[in-house]
Amino acid sequence: MSTDTATDNEKKKTQEDDTTTSNSSFKSIVEGSITMKYPVDEEGTVFYNPVQVQNRDLSILMLTLYSERLAVKNAVAQKRRELRQQNHTAETRKSALEIQQELDDYQASLNPRTLPSSKHNNGMTILDALAASGLRSMRYWKEIPGVKHVTINDLEPAAVDRAHQNLQENGLADQVVATYDTTDQTTPENTTVPWQRPHGIHVQNGDAKIEMYQSQRSQSLVSIPNQNSLILQQAKLKPQYDVIDLDPYGSAAPFLDAAVQAVESGGMLCVTCTDMAALGGSHPETCYGRYASMPIPSARYLQEVALRILLKEIATTAAKYGRTIQPILSVGMNFYIRVFVQVNNDKAGVAKLSLQVGSVFQSTQCPSFHIAAHGRMGGKKGTVYQPQRAPPVPKCEETGADFKVGGPMWLGPLHDADVVEAALERLREEQPQQQQLCPNMKWMATKERLEGLLMSVQEELSDVPLYYAMPDFCRVVKCSAPPINSVKAALINGGYRVSGYHKDPQAIKTNAPNRFMWDILRVWWKKNPPKKQPDKDSPAGKILAVEPQHEIDFTIPESLRKQITANSRAAKTDGKKKVSRFPMNPEANWGPKKAASGKKRKIDDQ
């Protein structure tokens, strides 16, 4: 069952902004454009969790931008078809270069926000695979422009009953459509043009994996030779979805094989995992069983490792079917992780996967670590894929300790910088497009949280996996920690790049080597020596016995000073409200609720 039966913002915002009524059975809460009823004082199949509002708000934002990109893609494809048809005659024939230039000019002239946003044939199709009571699905339908079809799917009959009731109460009952019966599509006249998903909302009680395995037919399949029995079987499959949303209670791993096949090429997978005890290293054996990856318990960067393990699993699963992934946004929020991944048909790109997946070698006695991809380019011309030679060094250079091996994990970028920038711009709009669709809607209850999150994401180094935290270094040598801006200054003055990480306020993400990081601390330690000297045979003694090899300058450079000033100004978006990058939990016990029981309950009896 899904965690997605939650609604709304932090507790205070819920009380102030949401219309709430109650009787002996239900309580109504408004989230976005939707009014949702949930049982009061019952441990029901469908439950309410305010933590997940940020998840849904972020999903609305990201899929709105994706819908616009999809509209541009479809418009350009239509223009390309028109140009090709015109090119059949000698009078209108153009060179390939001329056609491409005309397409480029046409795309540059498009404003995705003014493209047709009504439900049309080229609109976006969405599967909410674990929809529970349908809150997320209904928000997608009402708040995202350009949506043609949403399938609300859940395994539990009680959840499906509640979804139908919520659709009725939100005035969407007339948008509900029946499923298509494909059993009669084996006749020649019915297989010439495969059926497409109808305009509207379809609600079904079924297994998410079965629905996705049945939805593997490319939408580009438009003509079927009747003599080809294999293609006839393809015609009986349902079309792929543009967007598949997986929001399970726990791990999404069991659904990934079906999902990477059921999403259209260029489509979006939105995946949540809440099994942080496994991904976060508390139960590494469970993580290995689910994701074929080993986290490193107690490592500082475990939150980022969790994201990279999930992305690795999606990437390697997609590669089996000649598909590659492009992470659009990958974030840790509250007690879960959430990724938005574009999946593409790209058999040539699959060959590069060994360069994008690798392992971390973590020292057992200090924060030093090394990253190594599983593959490398070798040969005389550097064009031959070869196994990696790892680890880079046999022992930790600082302490002589052994390494622990973590992974495999995704080593490529976590985000698409252009999309993140567009998301921030859209989030800051005073009159967003969603309010034009739903004038009475409260826009993004978690806006301040999302803005702080995306501001941090925007600054992250995209090509540097994992990060350090200076308190971990200080813990080894037992000294006070230098200010984080002083550490960043030393790195910049040393010629290295540095950023933070959106989930950890003490994170230092940098391309500097371990030795430079330790030299920062060696110089700091000499300037601020503790009263007690470390034993020379201890890890601290071995580290401090080495003289710094780099010149360390803690002077704040102008570039960093400007960034600090800009961040301070950006924290006040309207002169009144401050945007916090690492907000505190708004109430006690801010975390996952108990899993739904799965027991059938009749709505009329509640």
What does this protein look like?
37% of the residues lie in helices and 18% in strands. It has 606 residues and is an alpha+beta fold. Among the domains are: 1-274 and 416-459, Vaccinia Virus protein VP39 (Rossmann fold, 3-Layer(aba) Sandwich); 467-555, N2,N2-dimethylguanosine tRNA methyltransferase, C-terminal domain (Phenylalanyl-tRNA Synthetase, Chain B, domain 1, 2-Layer Sandwich), CATH 3.30.56. Strands 6-5-4-7-8-10-9 form a seven-stranded mixed beta sheet, sandwiched between helices. A three-stranded antiparallel beta sheet has the order 1-2-3. Strands 12-11-15 form a three-stranded antiparallel beta sheet. A hairpin with a 2-residue loop joins strand 17 and strand 18. Helix 2 (53-86) crosses helix 4 and helix 9 (253-262) crosses helix 12. Keywords: Coiled coil, Methyltransferase, RNA-binding, S-adenosyl-L-methionine, Transferase, tRNA processing, tRNA-binding. It is an enzyme of class 2 (transferase). It catalyses: guanosine(26) in tRNA + 2 S-adenosyl-L-methionine = N(2)-dimethylguanosine(26) in tRNA + 2 S-adenosyl-L-homocysteine + 2 H(+). Residues 73-100 form a coiled coil. Residues 596-606 have a biased composition (Basic residues).
